[in-house]
Specification:
Helix 2 packs parallel to helix 4 and helix 2 packs antiparallel against helix 5. The protein is an alpha/beta fold. Strands 3-2-1-4-5-7-6 form a 7-stranded mixed sheet, with helices on both faces. The longest helix is centred in the first third of the chain and has 24 residues. It folds into 2 domains: 119 residues; 158 residues, Vaccinia Virus protein VP39 (Rossmann fold), CATH 3.40.50. The protein is elongated and about 70 Å long. It is built from 12 helices and 7 strands. Helix 9 links the parallel strand 2 and strand 3.
């Protein structure tokens, strides 16, 4: 495994370290002045080490993650230290500490640990693994916020979906595509919603029940669909591919199940590219699929292919 592959997926850790650094500069450093020179020196040193950590991560150095982890731990326990310095040895008044920097610190710790684990994994370890619980729900919050600014119904209809079609949503996540697709294909059609995450499957079950849908089949898998050859009319691969290790295998599986004349809808928005392992550009996707698909339309990163083989 080369160094570039090892450091794929460290962007969330670097981004949270940067947010933590900004907080230290805006709130932590000015607030340290009231506790004397020692506290100020500590705050300056912590901020400098955090900035160094960000630079090291960007330079693909493991030490950067350790510095991020150290600062995250310090920020978690800082309110306790401050409370004691103020002359209150008990910690019953800790509730006043702002929840935002505490949350950022915990997320920084988590993503630094996750990035370190990715670097320690070997090249032979190609088994797809789901996100951790905390990473999934962090992404869930972000995706639900971003959903307000997306035109999902338009994205769905742009693919030519209609009643009676068999649809595969590869990496269904929170069901942003699966639920409206199931309504669009009606009782005559079927939607196969695949995801490796147990958390995703749980959410999907609740949404299926809430919408009283009977035409959705859940598949908990990281790669294999279990579907017959050329059995799918329309496949959605939205914001999933960057987070998959064996991208070629995913594309091969989708090529296998999509019918001749069927449609593949592909996109990878910024969020999935930041969290995931994005080493395939849209141009590379087109090249890989060129022997089996022809590009029909391309608009704002949304690529729609027609199966020709």
């Amino acid at each position: 495994m080369n160094k570039n592959d090892q450091f794929t997926g460290t962007q969330p850790a670097a981004a949270l370290m940067f947010v933590l650094f900004i907080h230290n500069m805006v709130r932590g450093l000015p607030g340290s002045f009231q506790f004397g020179p020692a506290a100020t020196l500590f705050a300056v040193t912590a901020s400098a080490l955090l900035l160094l950590g960000i630079v090291l991560v960007l330079l693909k150095k493991k030490a950067g993650l350790l510095l991020g982890l150290l600062n995250g731990v310090l920020m978690v326990f800082m309110p306790i230290f401050i409370h004691i310095i103020k002359g209150h040895p008990d910690i019953n008044g800790i509730w006043w500490y702002p929840i935002l920097p505490w949350s950022i610190s915990i997320l920084t710790i988590h993503f630094c640990v996750q990035a370190w684990k990715k670097m320690k994994s070997t090249q032979t370890d190609n088994e797809e693994k789901p996100m951790s619980w905390i990473a999934f729900h962090f992404m869930r919050t972000v995706m639900n916020l971003k959903k307000r600014f997306r035109h999902i119904e338009e994205e769905i209809s742009r693919t030519g979906i209609e009643k009676g079609l068999h649809v595969l949503d590869f990496g269904c996540g929170l069901g942003f595509n699966s639920i409206p697709a199931a309504k669009a294909v009606g009782k005559e059609g079927r939607v196969f919603a695949l995801d490796i995450s147990e958390e995703s499957i749980k959410i999907m079950k609740k949404k299926i029940a809430k919408n009283k849908l009977t035409n959705v089949e859940l598949i908990q898998s990281g790669m294999e669909t279990g579907l017959e050859d050329k059995s799918i009319d329309l496949a959605y691969l939205h914001n999933t591919l960057p987070m998959v290790r064996d991208k070629q295998k995913v594309l091969k599986e989708i090529t296998r199940v999509v019918k001749t004349g069927g449609t593949l809808s592909y996109m990878s928005r910024r969020g999935s590219r930041i969290y995931g392992e994005d080493n395939l550009s849209d141009a590379q996707i087109k090249e890989i699929l060129s022997s089996d698909f022809t590009l029909e339309t391309e608009e704002n990163g949304h690529l729609i292919f027609k199966k020709i083989s």
